[in-house]
Amino acid sequence: MYRPEPNRILADAARDAGARIRFGLTVDALDDRGDHVAAHLSDGTTARHDLVVGADGVRSTVRRLVGIGTEPRPTGMGIWRVHTRRPERVERTDLVYGGACFIAGYCPTGPDHHVRVPGGAGAPARVDRRRRQARPGRRRSVPAARADRRGQRRGRGP
């Protein structure tokens, strides 16, 4: 399904249920008052809600505000995805993995559409062994990436 489509479906269902939708605002603070939650918004207003759902992405402000401090960590890989019309012959997901920085393939997402993952290196990474995090930069060879993965499986970090 094309990504904006679920947004439209959810927004339409919320409106049909009587919800008022306000765009262009962010949540600055949440105050649990027992029988409701007060959401302090970026325009200075406070909204009263029975339920707050944190569906605000991978770096979720709502998740942080309720005390969940988990943050995503860079892996050194990025993927391009292209949402296109699906040829009739594409009936299943096929992906090719060519090492730590290469994935190519396609995945049907509906009767008329599919997602293509073009082949090629993702975001090549250089690993800073002191900080143990991937940084954009020098490409690592496939054998070096495999050696890193073997070391990780044996309990030794990259």
UniProtKB/TrEMBL annotation:
Residues 115-158 are annotated as: Disordered. SUPFAM superfamilies: FAD/NAD(P)-binding domain. Residues 7-73 form the FAD-binding domain. Coiled coil: none annotated. Pfam families: FAD_binding_3 (PF01494). Residues 128-141 have a biased composition (Basic residues). The keyword Lipid biosynthesis does not apply. Keywords: Monooxygenase, Oxidoreductase. InterPro entries: FAD-bd (IPR002938), FAD-dep_Monooxygenase_BioMet (IPR050493), FAD/NAD-bd_sf (IPR036188). This is 2-polyprenyl-6-methoxyphenol hydroxylase-like FAD-dependent oxidoreductase. It comes from Actinomadura algeriensis. The lineage of its organism: Bacteria, Bacillati, Actinomycetota, Actinomycetes, Streptosporangiales.
